Amino acid sequence: MPRLKWGMIGGGEGSQIGPAHRLGSGLDGLFEFTAGALDHRPDAGREYGRRIGLPPDRAYGDWHEMLEGESKRADKVDLVTVATPNATHFEITKGFLQAGFNVLCEKPMTMTVEEGEEIVRLAQETGNICAVNYGYSGYSLVRHMRAMVARGDLGKIRLVKAEFAHGHHADAADADNPRVRWRYDPKQAGVSAQFADCGIHALHMASFVTGQEVESLSADCVSCISSRELEDDAMVNFRMSDGAVGRLWTSSIAIGRQHGLTLQVFGEKGGLRWTQEQPNQLYFMPLNERLQVIERGEANLSPEADRATRVTIGHAEGMPLAFANIYTDLAEAIRARKERRSVDPAANLYPKAEDGLRSMAAVFAVAKSGKEEGVWVDARPPMFR
Amino acid sequence: MPRLKWGMIGGGEGSQIGPAHRLGSGLDGLFEFTAGALDHRPDAGREYGRRIGLPPDRAYGDWHEMLEGESKRADKVDLVTVATPNATHFEITKGFLQAGFNVLCEKPMTMTVEEGEEIVRLAQETGNICAVNYGYSGYSLVRHMRAMVARGDLGKIRLVKAEFAHGHHADAADADNPRVRWRYDPKQAGVSAQFADCGIHALHMASFVTGQEVESLSADCVSCISSRELEDDAMVNFRMSDGAVGRLWTSSIAIGRQHGLTLQVFGEKGGLRWTQEQPNQLYFMPLNERLQVIERGEANLSPEADRATRVTIGHAEGMPLAFANIYTDLAEAIRARKERRSVDPAANLYPKAEDGLRSMAAVFAVAKSGKEEGVWVDARPPMFR
Amino acid sequence: MPRLKWGMIGGGEGSQIGPAHRLGSGLDGLFEFTAGALDHRPDAGREYGRRIGLPPDRAYGDWHEMLEGESKRADKVDLVTVATPNATHFEITKGFLQAGFNVLCEKPMTMTVEEGEEIVRLAQETGNICAVNYGYSGYSLVRHMRAMVARGDLGKIRLVKAEFAHGHHADAADADNPRVRWRYDPKQAGVSAQFADCGIHALHMASFVTGQEVESLSADCVSCISSRELEDDAMVNFRMSDGAVGRLWTSSIAIGRQHGLTLQVFGEKGGLRWTQEQPNQLYFMPLNERLQVIERGEANLSPEADRATRVTIGHAEGMPLAFANIYTDLAEAIRARKERRSVDPAANLYPKAEDGLRSMAAVFAVAKSGKEEGVWVDARPPMFR
Amino acid sequence: MPRLKWGMIGGGEGSQIGPAHRLGSGLDGLFEFTAGALDHRPDAGREYGRRIGLPPDRAYGDWHEMLEGESKRADKVDLVTVATPNATHFEITKGFLQAGFNVLCEKPMTMTVEEGEEIVRLAQETGNICAVNYGYSGYSLVRHMRAMVARGDLGKIRLVKAEFAHGHHADAADADNPRVRWRYDPKQAGVSAQFADCGIHALHMASFVTGQEVESLSADCVSCISSRELEDDAMVNFRMSDGAVGRLWTSSIAIGRQHGLTLQVFGEKGGLRWTQEQPNQLYFMPLNERLQVIERGEANLSPEADRATRVTIGHAEGMPLAFANIYTDLAEAIRARKERRSVDPAANLYPKAEDGLRSMAAVFAVAKSGKEEGVWVDARPPMFR
Quick one: C4-136 is in which CATH superfamily? Predict the structure, then answer.
């Protein structure tokens, strides 16, 4: 099977996300890095692209140039990853979708709900793939949680408890550091800081694992460092489409935690607990039995988990492989389209434009509720109400 | 030093709490079990009392008889523990306080805020000791957390994250078992179930450790098992008297958890985490340093911690010793009164009538907010506003 | 049931072991502290005994006086605990056994194998109870491990892996501190330091849990701090009476460990792991299934575990309760003798003189093998060969 | 910088190690998969090679053909990985080294000590790079342990405690499964089974981290499943070149463990503990201070650790990245040779032919000692004595 052609916008020299995408897309040899517009400075981007192996004519100066160049080619890229600053995601994603490309967009997909609805409609109309990079959903045992819930191992889901709390922005003396400050400045970050940055991953995970959408929510947002306009800590209660209750805590001032993405799911017949910092174990307690440790890679897991594991049991797998699983799914989706066949359902798990839209609606709902003393608000995008 | 004389109401044959109090009071040899009215069936109580070592004339048939009998004696009991069904705590505590006895009352101290205020006034007027048994505050490292906060190791406290979530009432098929059902029946349990039963311990802990009182709160209460009138899961956001933000989750349907009492405290200069199930370690991260493991019994802890530890480092200490520390404090308080001296401040940590009252106000506030879509309500007892 | 009468030799003011024994014996109200010779200075011992509640005529000046005094009484003590310096254990235990008393001796029971054999014979001849305080065997889940092995849950036992490794004697600058130094001085400590002090507990545990005796062993003993004559670290391989292989590591220079008593048992059908520092969980993996967490206090454990648990599931139990379980067993054994009935088998688990003797034989075997490059030596006492 | 050219022998369709090497070599884009002889069936190997992207003329039928083909080319491969069955490692490695290629050989490098010495001499004489794949040494925090020891954070090393114990061969009913059986058959596996397969990794780690070589050892080898000729469990005591004492346990019958590679290092000034199953945390206790948690990716770690980390703190990194670090080191070594400059010392950490030789000497020493009741034997290869 020839490798698919892959391009990236953003992710230039010194960025963290660029190498992560190159690693994720290249890991299984499914994609070949073929084109890019890697830097907002055209010359620097072209030069860096060539240096890391792009053909000179496909190391573009900006995304417009890349869109034009790739559109003309017979061997155009099969997938474009958008890893630029947040405010530009919408227009780039829109541009490429309209021109017939498949897109994987970094989160947030857009800056408003309206833009999100536009992307969803565009993806639906064009039939092009539009994915959003909620990469934590790529972990093998996260996918197994979803499969367990789907096949009824937990019975009806009663409650989801999600956390994404770290302490990396807890230092008041560092709050004016530009690297940190922009996140809490509404002019640059939008209506939400910590929830939009981290909490939204946990919320996506809650939906991903339960198969239920968030319908309404109530938020308590605070700025523990008082110079911040946007929240550095939030507690969100929510209700899901099949009746599950949700509770989500996110923080950037929780000194002593390094990451803290954790999901607990409680149903009528059992409970689950998983944490990103030790992602190779999943704790499962069937009702009235004992807590069990499910190991990544053990025999007889779900097809979804098996497909997303590469290393034998007992060896640690980490975030880069989770990330790569998003690309593996996309390769399957792209190939299925090319081959006019249906997608392997165990691979159809990559987050989609609809997820990006729902996340944006949740961000605005949290911001609104947070300002209005925790009033319950509809968290669904208008087009899904 | 002769042993103090101790009596108990309730805690009869087959109860769990009776042996726990006998163990706790007797552990250090500070109290002698001298009198009791142990059962609501007078003969059974008298017989059981004698069987477990009470002098025949001090094995009483009911609390009125005991109050009368002890009041007449020169060698009357120094402390009365009230371990009867919840609805009777108020009148018994009131009766003994009025008659000049010191009382340790099981939680909840009362069933209403008004009753709670009456007990507080009575304790203040009589000068008698009135304690409430929030026993988890007796753990050595919990006391060390309090000392660390008090001496400024964490700087100003920003956020407290408390949990008390277990799964022991998650079985819908067992929900009508009378042993479980009464807790969720407002006729027997009052206005709150899981919060009043477990959550309140976590809330007390938040105040105990930070030295701040809860001022206002917003609650999301749900009954995951639909036949229940009262909540089996609640999330409470709160604000404290010196500006700390609070988040508290309590549940009885969290399958996979056995107990789940956990406290995290985040300040400007550091973070702490402690969990009851492994109470001999305390996790401390000073800002911009590494996570450290504080061991119970290590050198150079606070006097409060040292006083509350009995076993050398590396050996497990458990709940019975925490419980006993409440009695140890009470022995010191009683002796200080007898000797007309001030109490050792490191021992003046037992929960007091004021704590019992504040808890009751919080229970009613949670119930009110829970019914009114999470509206923020004043959580202070009227007498403390 | 009236309380049994209990006396103690040693354990005077400022000792750690004295309060531990008083706590352990008093915890369940089964024993009453009635007599004692608590200090090697007669007057200090008498004074301290009275101060902590002994009747003046039973606060003795030394053990000879106590032996004489108690022997004459009709209401003599039912059990004598020997908590004096190691070198005196033999003669005191022997004296009291000969005079018809039951004895609980601190470990080591004797300083030589020959003395150990003499005690065993004396206990057999007199029929008096002679127990040795390997207190870790009192933990509820340790007893459950034993029950699981006995009923075949693990199949035939293949391997036992035991550790007792801490770092409290790792500081070379503190090695000459008399509090530490005597342990490594053969004149005071005998033929072994760390193995005799800590390793022997782990070895006892291996036998206790598997029901197999140690038959032969090979030891690698080293002094990591070179000024020490006796070992501060040892690795012992051994073979047991029903074919199990054993591996035991003990150390006092393992910086970063606080205690480290851990037992792993591997059989044909499953594996177990338990550690003293978190004694309320036991990890069990049945062959070809998943790792399970057995919780102290869960339903349907063995009678041996149930009898040794006092606190409900989810609450921490610690060392003092394990210690108390030895006394609870002894109370049952003493009563059974008085009542001329057989002992409850679930309570007949206290370590006996035979265990004390076997431990002593193992200590000498380790010392011999350690000096002779790890040669395999018979670890059984001559009388059991 | 153009990518280096990489080839592989073995690792054909369905193997585990093939994809792992392709992933590891490709992860950073430093190597391009250019040539291969992937299967012992020439046609299958050629076909598979082409299918996964090799140029048709460099998809060889066997290693002789590949050696001949590549030798003729100007653009020959820069590195050859040998991932064939163990018995063939020696001749292939020898062949390629002699012909001027750099080689990364899977472990074991050879089947005898003599062969190992021949490879070492050949690497020295030719100046070609000969690496051996002890991949666990590639973990970022393992390299940090080495750096900490080297810079004296632990003082002089007293003791190393290593383990590699799992339970995957514990099922007696599965012992005759050919997939398992060959490992315990001396005709196929040589003189040692579990030690040679797993223990040797732990022993390499002990040397890698301490910078000391193993000089002598004593082993206790047992076959817990009696039909096995070779050991499934071994305990090895050893002595190292700068005086450190070593203890190593390896097992394949330890039901309940999934992998179990763990290293503890104790020095005069501190202790370290790391375990492969949770490789992103390293536990460090400085003498007389508290246990600290060092996080992979935290600020101010050693250059060796920084160079070997790719993902930000708090995110899990796993075995594939450790593996890739061996390739990253090799890329640097190869480039340094090409550019006639010295190698970055922080990258000169890949295991070398000398390590492969020392391992083989240790395997034979363990086998000899295991047969002779644990006699101490010299564990050094003759050429290093």
Answer: NAD(P)-binding Rossmann-like Domain (3.40.50.720)
